[in-house]
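Notes from the pairing session

We agreed to fold both candidates in a single pass and log them together. This is the raw record for the first candidate, unedited. Please don't reformat it; downstream parsing expects exactly this layout.

Candidate A
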Amino acid sequence: MIQVARTDLSRALRRLEKGGAELLRPLGRDRLEPASEADLVSGQPLYLRMPGESRPTRLGEPSEIASLDDYLNGPPAPLKEAIASLVERGLVQDGPDAYKTLLHKQVLWATDRTLKELSRSASTPDHVLAMDFFGGSGLDRGLAQGERARCLKATAEAGLVSRWEAYDQYARPRPRLPVGSGVSVPRLLVSESHLENPDQVVQADSEWRSAFFRYLAPVLSELGTLDRSVYVPDSFRSLDGPFPLETRLQCAAVLLSAVAPTSKKPWQDAFNLYATAAQASQSSLELLRNCELLAGSVSLGMASGLAQNPRSPHAEVKDRIFEQLAAATGSPSVAAGAVETLRIRVGEESQQERLDLFRQLASCLSPEQRQHAPALYQEILANRLSHESLSVTGQRYLQVLSACAQLGQPLLAGPVFEHLQLGISEARIQPDQIPGLLAAGVMSGRFDQLPGQGGVRLEPDYAVVGGVRLKGRQT
């Protein structure tokens, strides 16, 4: 076997040398001399100067000769064509070395010298094809996600992101992508699903900029922070949200203006007040009224004690809760909005028990869905039976959530849970029946056989409970 490998290596080397390549070995400092096939098994460092290349390629191991032989003498392939395109445009300096790097599962770096040495990494052949698609020739040479890549490229062509930001999103997707120029105004955050219609995103970005200058800019200007690096929490600049973006910005301006004169962390305090108002609001009108009410209480000095001592008696507890929630959800803004809810005592359970339940909820959701974890926790509070502990109710909800997740619809667990809780309270369902009912629902792919009038039927984005259609959260 070893002899066969050496023979193949020798053949590959001879093909390379016939094509003009040269095998080299070190000779003193910064000098190289011709090497022979015998040097392949010597263990010393070896180099291969490819035809047309001034800089020799270092061989990490002799077997890499086969990779270089394939690059030079093998049949055309999309990866080799993409690398050649990147070399032609100066994004990659050494084609053979780049090919060898990718085949040995190492990271390849490309540098766009027109953008102040901006570098991007590729760790798979598909990433290299994407590099060429977004920043090179623009050709789709067989991308694994071609339609998605074309959607992202259209977003770049619309001026919403740069071509390399589009590449980053393709290679390493984020739940929300910053779009827009970012000049004077923080960038709007959108989910990738919105990018299917770039014209709508362009319109949304225009509306975002207009609302920013109408509501937030005057307040920030008074604070002396209106510049390109101005900070605005994600919840106030995300296209997705429980309330219209313009309403959220107006609320942010009202609250920020109220807390700024006395607060050392005005955005944090404004957001905490906003989270409190949002939890108590079911419409944009209610949200605005509640925010104005909270702003008025601050302006009237009702929080003067906090102004003199910004650290409340429960500040350290809140900090610990926030840190654990942020780790569970991956979102500081979601965590900040859930801190007060997690401090609500239901019975004799400890604070840690409430945190553990929340973390279990969050772990059942995908990263994109974890923004809904606070609302799911509130569903447990809202549907808890008076004679049951939070722990018992919470574990039952987790069973329902797990069953709905197996059907691909975790965010529609609420209607099913509410139906089951009502069935228990009316003695139509016994608690020990629920695991079997859920298992049967998962096996059949439906929950409309649950006891009670109409049962529960889940559809992709809504549920029918007792014959009534209830809209679910979008994932």
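Candidate B (folded immediately after A)
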Amino acid sequence: MYFTNIKKLKEDIIEKRFSEKDRFLYILLFIMLDTIFLELNIFPIEELNIIDYASSIINIVVTFSGTYFIYKANGGEDGNDFAGKYFSITWVRSIRFLLFLIPMVFIFSILDSFFFKFSDFNNEIAMLLFLSGFMCALYFYAYKDVLEIKEKEA
């Protein structure tokens, strides 16, 4: 893995020495650093509670494990076009799940306003569960999609 040597990286890509494992490692490192920095960015902004920390930990763990399992479903280092499958499938799955999640949050908010009247802390727990479930479902179904593609490619 190269950190600053773009010339050598381009040479490896041109000479077909840039494997699926290499692609996976770059993607994983990029996504994990992006996720971690996004999570760390919230910390100085407001006073945090246990829900904020739990949400950050869940985001990091689910992103890492989801990306890893999708890579394995694609055949690991012997797979084909991990990057293309990962980004395109998780994009479409994200849009589909958002189209489901947004109305659910809206409905929950209405029900809470008129019937449940949860405390702020309980609302945060409910949102944590909704969003964590969203992320887990996103990666689970993307994993299944990649498995299905892998079976049909063989």
